[in-house]
C-alpha cells in the first residue's frame, strides 16, 4: 500500500478517501484484496472431494414471513466431517442465507455478505432493498466461478422479509450467479431433490409459522432419508436442524428446545407411518 | 534583506489555525453524550432529518460530531470502513472504540499540522461495554487531542456552558428518561425553550440489545420517552447539585482544560 506521503494532504490512509461506492466488497478489493474469498491461483488438481461440503438447506414462505432450515451435516467424500455444522446464517435483521457446497468458502461468503449489508446500511443510513441484497449476493457468487469450476462450488439460498410487500421472499442461485426468485419454497444441496419433492406435497399457502416449521422439518427428514450426505436429527447427541424465522419482527433462530419439540412430534408420527404425512390424492 | 514575503512563525500559524477551527465549531449547536444505566445516550438538537450528527460505527460503537457536516461525514465514513475492515479481518469483538479514537486522532492531528485549514469538527467516539465500567466516551478535538471523558461529554457551540449544566445534573446509573431529561436541560439555556421533538436527534447504545447496540429513538418512541421524563424539571435541577457535590466522582478531563493549540512544547 502507498505510504501516506504519496496520498493527498491530510489522508493517513485510503480509509478516508471516498471510493464513490457504498459496497464493502468493492472497498475491500481496492484496500485489501487478499481478504476477499476469491482466489486467483489455479489448483493443480480439483480438491472438491477432500474438503468438507455442506448439504441440504430448505426454505419456505408462510403468512407474513419466511423460514429457512438446514441440516447439520458436513461431508468430505464418504466421510462425515462434522455433525453439528451451522449452515444457516443471519445476514441482517430481516434476511438470512443458507449455504451448500464447499463449507469453508460458504462460511466466508456468509461473513462477507453480512458485512456488505451492514456497511451499506451504515454508510447510506437506510436498509438495502431485498432485490438489492439478492443482486449483491449474485455478484459475489459469480466471482467464485473460477474456483467452482475446480470443485470449490458454493451455492447459497437467500431468504428475506420484504417490508414493502409484508411477505417473505426466497432467492436461489447457481454456480454462475443469479438470482432466481422462487415462489413459495425452494431447497439447495445434495438432498434438495428429495426435500423439494416433499415440500411440493406438504406446502400449504397461507400456513402459519408453526405449521411451516413442521413442514420444513419433515422435508429435511425426507432428504436425510434418501440422501446419505444429509444428516437427520441426531436424537442421541441432541443435534437438531437450525431453523431461522423471519417476519415483521425480524430474524430469530429457534432454540434447540423449540426445534426438539417439532422433531419429537415428527418422529412419533413416523414411528407409525415411516414415510411421513400422506398428502390427499384429490 | 528581510524575512521572506508571507513569513509567519509556526506558533502563529498553529494559533491562527486553532482560532479558525474553534470559531467554526462555535457556530454550530451543541451535542451531548452521556452514560445511563443501560449504556450511552446521544442527544443533538438537529433540524435536519437527513443530515445526521449521530451515527452507528459498529456493534458497540457510536459516533457524534459537531462542526462542518462534510468534514465530519468523511470521518464517519472512514471510521465505518476502519471498523468493518478490522471486524472482517479479525473478529467482530476485535473492533474497539479506543482503536477508532486513535485513528481519528492521528488523522485529525495530521490534517491540523499539514493542511492550510484544519478540520472544523469535534467528535465523540463512544463504546458501550458489558457493564457500565466497560463504557468509554472519547472526545476528540480538531487538533487530534483525545480526552477520555467520564460519564458525559459536551461539544459544539456553547460547549462550556452546556458541560457546566451537565456536570451539575449528571448522576451515575440514571434511567434513560432521566438521562434524556438531564441532556435536554443541559442543552437548554436557563429560561430558554426546549427544542421540539421533531428537531431532536436522539440515539442510544443499549448494552441489552442483541448484535448491534446502536438504536435511533425517533417518532412515537421518543415522544413516549419524553412523556416519562420527570414532570418538574426545575425541582430535579435543584435536587441534582447536592448529590453530584456529595459524590466523589472524578472531574471530567475535557471541558475545563485549555485546548492544545500547538504552542506547548510537549
What features would you describe in this structure?
The complex is a heterodimer of chains A (282) and B (266). The termini of chain A are far apart. In chain A, α5 runs antiparallel to α6. Chain A has helices spanning 24-31, 103-124, 130-142, 145-148, 192-202, 209-226, 256-272; strands at residues 53-54, 57-62, 65-70, 74-76, 79-82, 88-92, 95-102, 154-162, 167-174, 177-182, 185-188, 242-247, 250-253. In chain A, the strands form 2 sheets. In chain A, strands 1, 4, 5, 6, 7, 8, 9 and 10 form an 8-stranded antiparallel beta sheet that branches. Chain A has one domain (52-272): 4-Layer Sandwich (Glutamine Phosphoribosylpyrophosphate, subunit 1, domain 1). The model of chain A is unreliable at 1-5 (pLDDT under 50). Chain A is globular, with a radius of gyration of 20 Å. With 282 residues, chain A is an alpha+beta fold. Chain B has 266 residues and is an alpha+beta fold. Chain B has a single domain, classed as 4-Layer Sandwich (Glutamine Phosphoribosylpyrophosphate, subunit 1, domain 1). Chain B has 7 helices and 10 strands. Chain B has helices at residues 10-26, 69-89, 97-114, 159-169, 176-187, 219-228, 233-246; strands spanning 31-36, 39-45, 54-58, 61-67, 121-127, 136-140, 146-149, 152-155, 200-206, 214-217. Chain B has a 5-stranded antiparallel beta sheet. A 5-stranded antiparallel beta sheet of chain B has the order 3-4-5-6-7. In chain B, β1 (31-36) and β2 form a beta hairpin. In chain B, α4 (159-169) runs antiparallel to α5 (176-187). The two termini of chain B are 34 Å apart. Mean pLDDT of chain B is 83; it is low at 232-260. Classes of the chains: A alpha+beta (282), B alpha+beta (266). The A-B interface holds A 4, 9-12, 15-16, 18, 24, 27-28, 31-32, 35, 90, 93, 111-112, 115, 118-119, 122-123, 125 and B 52, 55-57, 74-75, 77-78, 80-82, 84-85, 87-89, 103, 106-107, 110-111, 114-115, 211-212.
